[in-house]
Structures are given as structure tokens and as C-alpha cells.
Amino acid sequence: MLQATAESVSRRDAQSIASEFFNEAFGQVMAQPKFVYNGKRLAMDRLFTPFYVFNNPAGGFVIVAADNKAMPILGYSLIDSFNPDAIGPGLRALLAGYAREIEYIRLDDRVPEEAIAAWRDLPGYISQVLKTPAALSDFRYSPQASRNEVHALSESYDAGAYSSEIYTPSQWQEAIGEELDGSGSVAIGFPTAKDFPTAVVYGRKGPYFRIDLDGRNNAYYRLNATEFISAPQLAMLGNPREEEAVMEEETPFAFHDAFIAEQAEQKRARQRRLDETLVPSEPVVRSIGAGHFDILFPTGINLAQVYSLSGARIKAFTYPDVPDVHLDISVAPAGFYFVLASDREGNSYGLKLVR
Length: 355
Description:
Layout: H1 11-26, E1 34-37, E2 51-55, E3 61-65, E4 73-77, H2 89-106, H3 113-120, H4 122-131, E5 135-136, H5 143-154, H6 169-183, E6 186-189, E7 198-205, E8 208-212, E9 219-221, E10 234-235, H7 240-245, H8 254-278, E11 284-289, E12 292-308, E13 313-328, E14 336-342, E15 348-354
């Protein structure tokens, strides 16, 4: 039976996996791979190692996850080497997403069956990663066009419909893959990273994608490190700007009908708020003031963690499986914060607070 317990992967074990990866890739015993980077500076409070990066002396690199609840291989190249002193904003945003996802999955009680199965059969997993055929395409977007389109999308009223946060990682992977098959390339961005970097996806090799991160390269990366957690990404799916440009034909009595519909929706919303107060299906937040919040969850909570917009963990609270909890972030500066809460049944809740 698969276990949900997170187990850290040591650097020595990760180096053995990297060696096995390069031996399989090149069909011969290669020189020992060289450790060059561990992503610890991207983790919350820099307290844990999310992954390891090893360079092959003959060329190429591989990123090995540092926890068995994440997929073993997060990215690789058989040509380019990894330079830890030249990580651009796009690559940094992707790697920071890996770090956040791996930290969150460590606290999640769900069993990542696909990841654990991959760790149990590493030779078979590595062989499948390397032997999956690749498909590349020409750019539909230039880097600047990608930036313009994704930033414009982020300011639209329905930007949330094009965010990875409403998909599971496998659904997000398939959504990007379908857009890639149809359009040849996909503009993608990382909205929570500094300066909101963007990139262009222009190839695929199974669950790994060729992404123009700060310039064209020969690497393949996963979009997400885990089966359950998705760091925020935004992508141009289904040409959303074109949908915005379609003008609806004006209909008679449209204003009157819209008014009646709005009144009906307001009535339903009042009833939903009443129902939510009695039996909430989502967290209900009440601000007491000065950084104090009372939150009512649908289930009893045993852990709540508060993060800043930059991803730094501000505070962690533990509770004795109660649905009604109190959060005190009065010492934190004014601004927006994210809360990740979970119960012992594996249910997770995310919400935003304004201090």
C-alpha cells in the first residue's frame, strides 16, 4: 500500500539518481555528475532544500526533487549546462514554483500515487522520460509579444479562467499541451514572481515542456513539481483576447432584463450568504481589526500558515481540529497575505487576507 509520508531525498541519493539518468541518456557510464545548485534560497524562509541540480561534465543537467512526494525529475537538458550565477527571472520563477509546491505537498495528507510509483521504479521512470518522443514548433509569440499579451490578460475581468490555480497540475499540463498542439506555442507568465516574468512554451516531450525562459534553450521542464499543488501561472489559452473583442448584438429591453437579472442574483447572493453563515462550504473570514481575524472553516483545522505575496512564510498556527479559528498577524506590515490551511482528512483551503 502506498504511503503518504514525505521522505526527504539526500544529496548523495540525488547524485546517484542523476548519474543513473545521464548513463541511461548517453548509453554509457558517464563521469560523476557535479552538484551545482539546491534551490534552498527559493524556499520559504530558506529552511529546506526543495531540489538538487547536477551538471554532467560532458554537457547537460538534471533537476532531482528532494522529496518523494514530488515527481523525481523536474527538468533536464542533454546539451546545456546549468549556471547558478545566471538564473534569469523566468527560470527563477519556475524554480520558485517548484520550491513552493514541494513545501506544500510535504504538509498535504493526500497520497501522490504517480510520484511514489515513479520513485519505486526509478530505472523505468527515467527510461520513459528519455524515450518519450519530442515535438517542437515555431514561435507564435515573440518574448515581447508574450509579455504584452499575458500582462494584458492579467488585467482582464476573467483572468482567473486562464490561471493554473483552477486546474489540477495534470489538467494544466493538458490545457497547455492542447493549446500548443493547436497554436504552435503558448504565452505563459508567473504573476506572483517579482516583475511578473513571462515565457513562451514551444515544445513538448510527454509531461515535460520546452520553454523559452529568458531565451531559447535545450532544456525540458515540468510545469509543476507535484500531482496536487499548482504554483500560480497564467497562460493564453483559447485566444482570450479574441473572445473579448467579439461584440454582442444589442437586444431590445436589454437594460430592463439585465436589471431584473441583477436583482434576482442579489437575492440569491443574500441567501447564499445566509446559508454560508449557517453551514459554510468555504472559509468565512471576519476581520476584527488591527491584524486579527476570525475564520470559520467547513471542517476542523489543525494547521494554518500565513504567507506574504512574495512567498515568505510569516506565521504558522496549529489548532486542535476546530472549525472556528483565530489568526493574529498584527505584527506584520500592512498588505495582502495568503493563508494555506488544512485538516487531518487532507482537505486544504486557501484564502487571502488584507492586513
